[in-house]
């Protein structure tokens, strides 16, 4: 049958990104403990289109995605991007995945377990000079105001915050590892399940570690600088 998309185009206008957006798709993610985590991702997939080609083959995006939906992790996403570039005969392929990742987290004193949700994004691009991958992780945390503590006779103002870190890295870096690094920069982590002994601990932990948001950013920068696998970050 005629393949109109592969016909030549006389307008001589290349397109940086053409593809499909906001695909809601089930993913099976590979976890640090060797298990898997099921989630639903919102996915954008693009390729570059040269100036002499009329269009790309949209169905191939989903064909490739379906082949890579199980056991997803950063290295596998790079493989997906390479495959997309090859199958669509493109100079550059670009994939974005946004999803919620769940980590089984234990309360600090009683050890009561619960699932904590973390927003995660993978952004990958494959081109003629190689691949680039950024992993973005957000972690909810507590920040306790140093100014409030200083001016108050007792107690201090505190609030929930969301700390996000985008990282480029060498080798393998797990979502769980990045989440732990992020949480260590806060006044206190957030836990899904707290009993009374845990409530006492998180109250005192935050009070003993007052931080402005600027302090959190700077402390996290120091922490990420000390991680040898991370070679670039945005907080």
Q: Can you characterise this structure?
A:
Helices cover 28% and strands 40% of the residues. The chain has six helices and eight strands. It has helices at 58-67, 74-87, 146-151, 175-183, 196-208, 213-225; strands at residues 15-30, 36-49, 93-106, 113-127, 130-144, 158-169, 188-189, 230-234. A hairpin with a 5-residue loop joins strand 1 and strand 2 (36-49). Helix 1 (58-67) runs antiparallel to helix 2. The chain starts with 14 loop residues before the first strand and ends with a strand. The model has no long low-confidence stretch (mean pLDDT 95).
Short description:
This protein has helices at 58-67, 74-87, 146-151, 175-183, 196-208, 213-225, and strands at 15-30, 36-49, 93-106, 113-127, 130-144, 158-169, 188-189, 230-234. By secondary structure, the chain is of the alpha+beta class.
- In round numbers, the mean pLDDT is 95
Q: Roughly how many Å is the radius of gyration?
A: 22 Å
Shape: elongated
* Uncertain stretches of 5 or more adjacent residues: none
Amino- and carboxy-terminal Cα gap? 51 Å
Strand content: 35-45%
**DSSP summary: helix tally:** 6
Number of β-strand runs: 8
- H-E string: EEHHEEEHEHEHHE
Roughly how much helix do the residues carry, as a percent range? Answer: 25-40%
Please describe the biggest sheet, giving its number of strands, its sense, and whether it closes into a barrel: 8 strands, antiparallel
State the secondary-structure class: alpha+beta
């Amino acid at each position: 049958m005629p393949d109109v998309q592969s016909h030549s185009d006389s307008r001589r206008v290349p397109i940086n990104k053409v593809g499909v957006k906001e695909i809601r798709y089930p993913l099976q993610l590979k976890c640090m403990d060797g298990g898997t985590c099921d989630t639903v991702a919102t996915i954008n997939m693009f390729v570059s289109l040269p100036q002499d080609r009329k269009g790309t083959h949209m169905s191939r995006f989903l064909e490739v995605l379906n082949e890579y939906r199980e056991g997803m992790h950063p290295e596998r996403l790079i493989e997906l991007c390479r495959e997309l570039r090859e199958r669509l005969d493109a100079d550059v392929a670009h994939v974005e995945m946004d999803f919620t990742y769940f980590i089984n987290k234990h309360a600090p004193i009683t050890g009561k377990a619960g699932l904590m949700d973390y927003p995660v994004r993978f952004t990958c691009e494959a081109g003629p000079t190689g691949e680039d991958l950024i992993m973005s992780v957000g972690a909810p945390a507590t920040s306790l105001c140093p100014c409030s503590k200083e001016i108050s006779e007792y107690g201090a103002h505190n609030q929930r915050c969301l700390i996000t870190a985008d990282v480029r890295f060498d080798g393998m870096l797990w979502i769980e590892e990045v989440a732990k690094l992020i949480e260590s920069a806060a006044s206190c982590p957030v836990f899904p399940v707290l009993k009374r002994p845990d409530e006492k601990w998180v109250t005192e932990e935050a009070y003993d570690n007052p931080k402005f948001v600027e302090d959190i950013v700077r402390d996290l920068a120091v922490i990420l600088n000390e991680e040898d696998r991370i070679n670039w970050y945005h907080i």
